[in-house]
Amino acid sequence: MLGAKWEEYGDGRANLSVALRPGLTMHMGFAHGAVVGFLADSACAWAAASTVGNVVTSEYKLNLTAPGIGDQLRAEGRVLKASGRNLVCMADMCAINQGKSTLVAVALATSARFGR
């Protein structure tokens, strides 16, 4: 629904991007926080899944650092630590505006292995 595209996947990393369009922005043209949150959750969960298979998000914290202004949002997720059933992951979300990248959010998430 958001048109997310894979940039990288595997070995504890997952990078995704979303083209910003009017339906994904607020009235001032900034990326909606829910879009940033989707990218954060997805990048962390897919990074975790690339190392252990099926996972579900147990929790995540999102720090918004700047407005998401530009043509595209990119998320770079990575596994920080896998221990037992839980994986701690981190993601950086950047807005790309006229070729310049600006950090707009940082997320810290815990994913839990699901199933066998």
SSE diagram, text form:
Layout: E1 5-10, E2 13-19, H1 33-52, E3 55-64, E4 72-83, E5 86-97, E6 100-113
Antiparallel strand pairs: 1-2, 2-4, 3-6, 4-5, 5-6
Q: What general form does the structure show?
A: elongated
Broad structural category: alpha+beta
This entry's quaternary arrangement is: single chain
Return Rg in Å: 14 Å
On the 0 to 100 scale, the average pLDDT is 95
User: How much helical structure, as a percent, in the residues?
Assistant: 10-25%
- Poorly predicted regions are none
Alpha carbon gap, first and last residue: 29 Å
Task: Please give the order of strands in the largest beta sheet.
Answer: 1-2-4-5-6-3
The biggest beta sheet reads: 6 strands, antiparallel
Number of E-type strands: 6
Beta-strand content estimate? over 45%
- Give the ordered list of helices and strands: EEHEEEE
User: What's the total helix number?
Assistant: 1
Task: Describe the model.
- There is one protein chain.
- The chain has one helix at 33-52, and strands at 5-10, 13-19, 55-64, 72-83, 86-97, 100-113.
- The termini are far apart.
- The chain is α+β, with helices and mostly antiparallel strands and 116 residues long.
- It has a 6-stranded antiparallel sheet with strand order 1-2-4-5-6-3, covered by helices on one side.
- It has 1 helix and 6 strands, in the order E-E-H-E-E-E-E.
- The protein is elongated.
